[in-house]
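Let us work through a complete example step by step.
Step 1: write down the sequence.
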Amino acid sequence: MQTHYAGAVPLDLLASEQDRIARRPAFLDAQINAGDSEYEQAKAHLDDYLALAGTCTRST
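Step 2: predict the structure and record it as tokens.
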């Protein structure tokens, strides 16, 4: 606010930056949730592959 009061930052720019900053936590939460989803899916696939590999036997 001091930069706005000093005339260094126009009010519309200050408002748009405040809006952008306010939206950032929601964006980051969405990214984290997407990563969690991908991790859970990858873990499920790995568990399936390991279970399948455990049923394989070597014929000699």
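Step 3: interpret the result. The two ends are 78 Å apart (CA to CA).
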